[in-house]
Each structure stands twice: as C-alpha cells, then as structure tokens.
Amino acid sequence: MLERVTAPSLFPPPTYSHATVVEAGTKLAFLAGAVPLDADGKVVGVGDAVRQAGQVLANLGEQLRAVGSDLGHVVATDVYVVSSDPSVLSAVWEVVEASGLSTGPHSSTLVGVACLGYTGQLVEITATAVVPAPLSPPSVPSVPEEVVPS
After folding, report:
1. How does pLDDT run across 105-116, given as a tens digit for each residue?
2. What distances in angstroms separate CA 30 from CA 34, 38, 48, 74, one per listed residue?
3. Is the separation of the CB atoms in 34 and 60 below 8 Å?
4. Which residues sit opposite 23 in a β-bridge?
5. Contact criterion met (CB below 8 Å) for 37 and 43
6. Inter-residue contact 92 to 5 (CB < 8 Å)
7. Exposure pattern of 47-64 as b/e (b: 16+ CB <10 Å)?
8. Burial class (CB in 10 A: 0-12, 13-18, 19+), 120
9. CA–CA gap between residue 6 and residue 68 (Å, rounded)
C-alpha cells in the first residue's frame, strides 16, 4: 500500500504531494527516463515540448505495462524540460496532469535543463512505481470424492 503525504506545516503543493510512503514488502519498479522516441527511434515533435510530453507519457505507460504496473501506481517522477521559461515547464506539467500520472497525487520534481540526450529532445520523465501483486484466480472449492463402501 502507499500513502501520499502533504506536510501540514508547508505550503500545500498544487498538484503533487511532498512524500509518498510505501509499505515494506511492496515490489517497486525504478524506470529509466522515458524519452520522446517513436518505435523507429526518431524524436517525435522536434521543437514542440507539449507534443513530446505526450509521446514521453505514452512511452512511460509502455514501460510500466512491461513491468506489470500503470500510470496510477507511479509514486514519484522527475520531469525534465529543456527550457528556462516557466510557461514552457507549466505547459508540459499540464500534459502530465491530464495523463492521469498525477493521480494520487504523486511526488514529483519539475526541472528546466539545458540539454537532454537526443538531438531535438525537449522532455524526459523518470519514474518509480509500485508493481501490484497479480490478482489470484478465484479458488474453486474442492468437492470431496464420493466414498464407496468396500
């Protein structure tokens, strides 16, 4: 189980929590940065941080599904945006909020950076997520075998 905490003595954050506590014994996935590449390895939305944010979130969703999780189980993210303009960072954050990733809300850091790994890349998101235990199939009550007198 996870608990999202906003410290009452601090200014309340608008759409994230200050901390997320995960109960011991829970399986976690630490995901590498999701990037705005398509299936052919080409950068999507060169020059458009909002479009890239959408591709990054789609790719993050694929990473999560590959480990048995989803956007709703993300407990922490770091969102990197190539920009020093707060309005660009805000526009990317609006895409994050609309994706369902901020459900909870989760703990997150939004950072403006000078450069990311691929030429033309403007957005990258790293994440930590809970991997929920698989649902067990319903148990079928056993039927005792008929006892035949000998």
Report:
1. 788 999 999 999
2. 12, 22, 27, 10
3. yes
4. none
5. yes
6. no
7. ebbebbbbbbbebbbebb
8. middle
9. 28
- Laid out side by side, the sheet with 107-113 consists of 28-34, 123-130, 74-82, 107-113
Which structure tokens are listed for 21? 């506590």
Of the candidates 70, 78, 135, the one whose C-alpha atom is nearest the C-alpha of residue 103 is 70
- Whole-angstrom CA distances from 29 to 6, 88, 112 are 23, 29, 25
Among 26, 32, 36, residue whose Cα is nearest residue 1: 26
How do strand 74-82 and strand 123-130 relate by DSSP bridges? Answer: antiparallel
**Model pTM score:** 0.80
Segment 6-24 shows an average pLDDT of 78
Transcribe 99-137 into DSSP letters. Answer: HTTTSSPPEEEEEEES--SSTT--EEEEEEEE-PPPPPP
Residue with tokens 């960072």: 89
